[in-house]
Amino acid sequence: MASPQGTIEVTKSNFVEKSNDFIKHLPNASFIAIDEEMTGISLPPNEVTPMSKEDSPAHRYSALKRVPERYSIIQLGISLFEQKSVTETAERDAASFIVRRYKFTMFPGADPNLSREITMHPSAMHFLRENNMSFDTWVQDGIPFCTKFNAQKVVERFLERHQRRIKAAPIMSPNNSQRLVLSRDADKQFHARCITRLREWLDAPLPTPAPTQEGVSLLLPRCNSFLRRSLYEAIQRDYPYLVVETENEQIRVWRLTDDERANRNQRLLEEDFNKYLTESVGVYRIFLALTKACRGEPIKNDLENAILAENAAVATADFVPTAESPTRKIPLVVHNGLMDLLFLMSHFHSPILPGDWVECKDLIHSYFPIIYDTKVLATQYCAESSSRSHLQGVYEDTLESYPEWQLKNSDEESGQQAHDAAFDAYMTGVSFCGLTYTIHNQCEVLPTSSNARFKLWEVSEKLEYPRWLFGRNKLYFHLSPFTIDLETPCDPLGRRISALSTFRVSNINRGITTRDILDCVRGLTDSNQRAIHVDLFWVNDTVFLVGARITSLQQSEDQSEEIFKESGKLLRCALEGRFCNGETIELFVPPARPEKTNSIWNLWGLLGSNDSTLSERPAKRRRTE
After folding, report:
1. Are 399 and 405 in contact (CB under 8 A)?
2. How many helices (H) and strands (E) does the chain have?
3. How large is the average pLDDT for residues 15-29?
4. Residue 81 — very low, low, confident or very high, per pLDDT cuts 50/70/90?
5. By C-alpha distance, which of 95, 94, 76 is closest to 340?
6. Helices marked H in 298-420
7. Annotated Gene Ontology MF terms (predicted)?
8. Residue 490 three-state SS
9. 397, 388 in Cβ contact below 8 A?
10. pLDDT at site 173
11. Is the omega angle on the peptide bond into residue 209 within 30 degrees of 0, that is, cis?
12. Helices marked H in 239-296 — which ranges?
């Protein structure tokens, strides 16, 4: 893996330049990995109402959505993984990449109509401080952001200002019936003195040469807004060829030749372009570019063109849409990324997320048609899953398998560690590459042609590789037996188990351990002498779920149905032979979707945005002896 520039730190002071660099390289990416750091990932204890671990994502969503609606993104890390061509890398290294890492530091803008309040959770702030977060940079040089709706309004005003400027239209064009009439003698005298001074200035010869390339100007005395409007009206009525502008509660009048007017308009255009990008649109520019690349869409209209253009001239040029042709949709890669995606929606689509879970999934899927979650790949799609599924653990395991992917520079020793959004995005991308190769090798899936190298990221849309092999558009749901499926309304059980063979066992003795349960189902085989493997999930001290698990990753979901049915019958018989003293054994049925409620939950870590291990859960009675 080659990362030629290290992490590219993007702040407000360099946003236009660095965002242009990002947009330039984005279409060449094989896949894109993201990560975020937020001001909070859980709600205060007094707003938390615990909910059952058996609840489905739809059941928990009404509470879950309030976290991204309340807190803010501090850092958005994006890594672009561009696979080298065959001529650039050795054949043996089938995943040699140029990686560009970007870290966008985000802070709400000054305009209250575009920004949102900042709410900070103390534990999140302590965590970020311990991981070298620069709060000074965040506050002083953070890039603003806005929603799609607000960005469109800002761009429309920018384009309107440009059109007025090139047409030399008056800044204020009041209707004749609304013109101000001065009544006070002092106001009339002030107005007369200013107009007299203006006429004397116009009658005087122009200095040679001109003091600037933008002509000469006259600054009239300071006055209130009422008098300034009166002067505006008089000057624009009697001297329409002059340019009038306000400067620190004073009126400045410009006398310009055609060339000077063109130079001035060009300077003002560039300043206006940079200002509206850095102070208003901000990181929405990155979100728009990212989503269009993930959707394989060209620029559609003049508003999108004005946001994504590399400079002011391109932004204001007549936009001609290109003929739409099928474009490769670039996969987005996350690690335990549900919260990352929800935060993106609340920051760039709407501050209030949809009230319905299915609508929310459809919204995410509309922006990002192809998503891979490395937490899902590591826990559910690798035949020999590592006991470590948190991001850094998966990354380290990947480097053990592919030591040639270790960074060749000293980035990892210079502070670019875990919990920096850009480096976490980098680790996510490296882990994704390693996991896809591992799954490919264990499934013995052939590439598209005999001389082609396996590249999941180039065939995702064509679906040469079925989604059940690599978990396309499935997201990890923390501390839950469910996996989120963005392509279907219902979310299935995860961990390669099925509702056809998953049982809920309740009212068990508190002395029962995990080992006791596994011992009673050990050695089960089906009619084809295949061993029946199980997955165990504790709900609480007296309830657990256990389901037969498909271990052969070459079995499709349709092919697995009969296996699940047979395994379920054998598993139930084994459970009934062991738990026959008042315990209840029943086929697990996910709870019905709840009515809308304002209750809040946050079982330990359930709102976490990234990693979790068993050690991060609340202390509880040991499940094993």
Report:
1. yes
2. 21, 15
3. 95
4. very high
5. 76
6. 302-308, 312-316, 338-348, 357-367, 374-376, 391-401
7. 3'-5'-RNA exonuclease activity; RNA binding
8. coil
9. yes
10. 45
11. yes
12. 258-276, 284-295
pTM of the model: 0.84
Beta strands 332-334; 73-83: pairing state = unpaired
Q: Which residues contact 134 (CB under 8 A, 6 or more apart)?
A: none
Structure token pair of residue 339 = 């919260």
Q: b/e for 210-242, b at 16 or more Cβ within 10 A?
A: eeeebbbbbebeebeeebbbbbbbbbbeebeeb
Structure tokens at 72: 């803010």
Residue among 79, 60, 17 at smallest CA distance from 590: 60
Query: Are 336 and 375 contacting, i.e. CB atoms less than 8 angstroms apart?
Result: yes
- For residue 584, pLDDT over 80 is answered with yes
Express each pLDDT in 121-131 by its tens digit.
888 888 888 87
Give the number of other Cβ atoms within 10 Å of residue 358's Cβ.
Answer: 15
d(CA 26, CA 293): 7
Contact call for residues 228 and 155 (beta carbons, < 8 A): no
Q: Are strands 97-105 and 543-549 parallel, antiparallel or unpaired?
A: unpaired
Q: What letter represents residue 378's amino acid? A: A
**Would you tell me how many other CB atoms lie within 10 Å of the CB of residue 362?**
14
Count of C-beta atoms within a 10 Å radius of residue 455: 18
Q: How many CA atoms lie within 13 A of 466 on its CB side?
A: 11
Spatial strand order of the sheet with 371-373 comes to 7-10, 97-105, 73-83, 31-38, 332-334, 371-373
Q: Compute the chain's Rg from CA coordinates.
A: 31
The two structure tokens encoding residue 187:
């106001």
Distance CA 246, CA 235 (A): 13
pLDDT at residue 92 greater than cutoff 90:
no
SS3 181: coil
By the 10 Å C-beta count (0-12 exposed, 13-18 middle, 19+ buried), 80 is classed as buried
Strands, E assignment, 59-210: 73-83, 97-105
Q: How sure is the predictor about 243, in pLDDT bands with cuts at 50, 70 and 90?
A: confident
Q: State pLDDT tens for residues 400-450.
A: 888 877 776 544 544 456 678 999 999 999 999 888 888 877 766 545 443
| Across 3-11, average pLDDT | 81
